Amino acid sequence: MAAKRPTPTPRMIRGSVVTQRHRCGKPTCHCVDGETLHETTVLSYSEGGRTRTLMLAADEVSAATAAVQRYRGAQAKLEAQGNLGL
Fold this sequence. Notes:
By secondary structure, the chain is α+β, with helices and mostly antiparallel strands.
């Protein structure tokens, strides 16, 4: 079986990179105390009026964060250009 090739990160991504904290539910896990929770980094975005999340691998976080920042920069630039006509 061939190794799975990573999907290239798009130049821009609409959404937010956030860290979610949660309990796993196992009665003997360290997270049961509510203090030391499991952390998962996800891309959160809206689609069809619903919030969706996509889990990110550790090596994808920096590329996804940079793509989100590029999107926000482009969006701000477009909004500024649109406001020039007001």
